[in-house]
Amino acid sequence: MLLAGLLLVVLIIISMMMGRYNLSVSDVFKYFTGSASSSTQLILKLRFIRIIAVILVGAGLSMAGATFQAVFNNGLASPNILGVATGSSVGAAFAILYGMPIYVIEISAFVMGLITVFLTLLIDKFLHSNSGISLILAGIIIAGLMQSILGSIKYIADPEDQLQSIVYWELGSFMKVDLNALISVGPILVIGIVFLILARWRLNVLSLDVATVKTIGINPKLNRNLMILFATLLTAASVCLCGVIGWIGLVVPHISRSIVGGDNRVSVPMTGIVGAILLVIADTLARSISVNDIPLSIVTGFIGVPIFIFILLRRKSSIV
Amino acid sequence: MSEIYTENLSFAYQTEKIIGNVDLKVDNGQILVILGPNGIGKSTLLSCLSGLHGNYQGKIQLEDEELKSISSRELSHSLAFVSQGVNAKSNLTLYDYLLLGRSSFHSIFSQPDKKDRKKVEAVLEQIGLSQYRAKSVSDMSGGQRQLTQIGRALVQEPKLLIMDEPTSALDYKNQILVLKLIKALSQIDISIIISTHDPNQAMMVGDQVGLLINNQTYLQGETEEVLTEQNLTDLYKTPIVSTYNSKLKRDIFGTKME
């Protein structure tokens, strides 16, 4: 854990150095001591704000994924596969369509994220199957519905202004993240992350069957819903800040479990750090390897897919 | 003093009555073994007694309190339940799995403390799995997993332990291991209710035996009084004979195959 934390600090420094204008380590240190030149100070300030947002989203999305995987006892559960991310995008797109301020966009994304989880769980219940696949199937169905709604919103959105903003959410990018956006969304991400870190032991017991959880003296419904609520809050806040980012919420919990084991007391904080590390790498690549920012989901896909295949091949037990 | 007793207990799924007229009683440190054919409602009865089915009719009294009036948190500190089957899917190590039994002693934001660890250590000794503390539960054998389930229940520090067919999925050696543990637990004043299909197991460990004959009839009494050829033949609707084994110093039950 300590090593992962140190790696993250090193990556933050490297990431601040990289970009359209490459800077040196001493420039970065000068920035933190306030002795850099004004132009360097400005560039590094923008990069630092962006990196903070990347860390919060990387940790938040990964921990949301770990939470969904624990409460549904399903290794395929993630904000994207359950449709929560697409649902939150629909909420955000609706609010953008009506020209709402950022806090309304946040609330709208959160509410639609929750509605999406509810619909996914409802369909899973109707499928009357105990296999973990039915939950994933329900998520795919609802994500498909949300995708259609999003398509409809895009169809009627003003192509000059609104459409561009909506497409930005869909592809995922930190390009537009500034201090105002970070101040309005960052605290929600911090609250969600802190909650899940504090409640991480409870996630262990929620992985058991409902009858056992009850006889252990824990209210399974209340606790499960609380965890889903905060995981959805993290997903919605992430979508508000940078749009939909694929793979992180699915793959990172598996990576951290393969490093520190299945105990959520250790693996949830580890998931947060690994998620932050991966997204800092992905975002640094997205803004460094081309003149224009590459949409983040493209980069996370190229990183996430091979890692996930590797994890699947190494597994001894069933993933769902 | 009775640890648990019921008066005219019955339970129905919608309009279908599953169990009825159950007057059951277990005293401190006693073992009650419930016998009955498949599908007769043994699991339903145990679920009612464990507080999992709140909508039963009649009365379930745990020590001095009506079961329905006890919160699930309080209940978990005096009663623990081990459900049927040993296929628990968990990536946790044995040690971390046993710690789960301490969850209701803490708030949602708490972490296990020294007292919890001490209790887990003691239970690891009790169930004889100390050397496997770091082993993943999913990598354990059937017998070890069943002992793990019982261990998780014991970590709750229950006065009453209810187990649904704790030996059904085990080989003979592991069945005996679990039955010996059950006997040892009763000797430290833990009351125990188990269900089983095997009257020989009831003879081995039961202080009392309850026969769930149909959804109207439950018969309970001293093991030797209840476990008769006639009662078992009526219960399983197949001829059952008994013979006294002087080496084992108890009756053994079986059926002629011709």
From TrEMBL, chain A:
Pfam families, A to Z: FecCD
CDD domains listed in its UniProt record: TM_ABC_iron-siderophores_like
Locations listed in the record: Cell membrane
Bilayer topology annotation: Multi-pass membrane protein
Principal location: membrane
GO biological process: siderophore-iron import into cell
GO MF annotations, alphabetized: transmembrane transporter activity
InterPro entries in the record: ABC_BtuC-like, ABC_transptr_permease_BtuC
GO CC aspect terms: plasma membrane
Protein keywords: Cell membrane, Membrane, Transmembrane, Transmembrane helix, Transport
Membrane-spanning parts: 48-68, 80-98, 104-123, 135-157, 177-198, 226-248, 268-286, 293-313
Family: Belongs to the binding-protein-dependent transport system permease family. FecCD subfamily.
Cited PANTHER family: FERRIC ENTEROBACTIN TRANSPORT SYSTEM PERMEASE PROTEIN (PTHR30472), MOLYBDATE IMPORT SYSTEM PERMEASE PROTEIN MOLB (PTHR30472:SF70)
Protein name: Iron ABC transporter permease
Source organism per UniProt: Companilactobacillus mishanensis
